[in-house]
Amino acid sequence: MSDLETFIRDVPDFPKKGIIFKDISPLLEQKFSETIDAIIKLIDWSEVDSIAGVESRGFIFGAAMAKALGKGFIPIRKKGKLPPPVISESYTLEYGEDSLEISTLYNKQKVVIVDDVIATGGTLKASIKLCKNANLEVISCLSLINLSFLNELDNTQIPIHSVFEY
Q: Residue 4 falls within a domain, yes or no?
């Protein structure tokens, strides 16, 4: 797994001064299949019905994982991208504010939320709340990278797993 980490590039002062952006583009280009396998290995999938992927890079991982595992895929999208009926949740991130939405048309099921990077945890907390309000039981959250020094997610009561933690 440490081999995968060598394909993650630090980009200082992006998207604004003081932020060190973890660029996973080289990893996706050169080790995509191995990366998906590494994320899949983080949990037992026997009780999972669907994967909820967070826009936008969570779609990349979540859709590939859903295909590999034969699971459904549920998009959690930026505001205004899904047709109604939807519910919305606003959140803060390390460099601003945003909103996410999810459809309210899903049947009750067990899901895993997938995103690329967990930074402040705002996106993940909003995604968990959206899923719960959409009648989806979140049994775990997965990411490629968890910047745990930026977040306080120990109290979410939902297991959070990542391939890399900083």
A: no
Domain that holds residue 126: 42-165
pLDDT of residue 16: 84
Q: Do 50 and 78 meet the contact criterion of CB atoms below 8 Å apart?
A: no
Give the residue ranges of DSSP H helices in the chain: 2-5, 25-40, 57-69, 122-133
Q: What is the C-alpha separation between 19 and 7, in angstroms, rounded?
A: 19
User: Is 101 noted as a catalytic residue in this protein?
Assistant: no
Does residue 8 belong to any structural domain of this protein?
Answer: no
Q: Which of 29, 89, 94, 152 is catalytic?
A: 94
pLDDT at residue 18 in the model: 87
**Residue 25 is assigned to a structural domain of this protein:** no
pLDDT digits (tens, 9 = 90+) for 130-139: 999 999 999 9
Choose among 63, 44, 73, 54: nearest CA to 125.
Answer: 54
Q: Has residue 13 been placed in a domain?
A: no
Number of domains in the chain: 1
**Which residue in 55, 57, 77, 101 is the catalytic one?**
57
